[in-house]
Amino acid sequence: MFSQEKYLKALNFAAKAHKEQKTPYGLPYLTHLTSVAMEVIHACEESKLEIEKSDLAISVALLHDTIEDTNITYDDLYNEFDAKIAEGVEALTKDFSLSKKDQMADSINRLMSQPYEVQMVKLADRITNLQKPPESWDNLKILNYHKEAKFILSCLKNCNVYLSKRLEDKINNYIVYIN
Ligand SMILES: [Mn+2]
């Protein structure tokens, strides 16, 4: 179970923040956010997570790219939502002052001290991003993305058994895109 009202509040906030932003497939960015939220909702229901935990996971899923990709700040999320949501989204945000190579490990490190509900969003995000790679990606980028997905799974697999299994399947199926 989860709160429909909280879902709508986070969805509308994210829609306003991401404005006209598009996914690498040229679709409205909301398709990415609602896909990640859908994976999280499915896992929450399968795991029969209590309502407060589901609400945290789902809100963070809808808001997970706001600090990284829009002008929304930690303080905005703290004021509009709460500390848990703001901290969760911040942990899912890359630190652009680091080298590209170090950004993922740093974010994973920060996620490890977050509740499982926040870690679930990282798995759902990568599940969603393991669809057919965008046309613009070369083989090396696809290969690295696959490798990075395995690293994410190995670090966060304990947060939810359904999402771990689904990510594992997605990783295995992604091999068809590697030349
Ligand atoms: Mn994302």
UniProtKB/TrEMBL annotation:
GO molecular function, one term: guanosine-3',5'-bis(diphosphate) 3'-diphosphatase activity
SUPFAM superfamilies for the chain: HD-domain/PDEase-like
InterPro entries per UniProt: HD/PDEase_dom (IPR003607), MESH1 (IPR052194)
Source taxon at top rank: Bacteria
UniProt keywords, alphabetically: Hydrolase
Protein name: Phosphohydrolase
Organism listed in the record: Halarcobacter anaerophilus
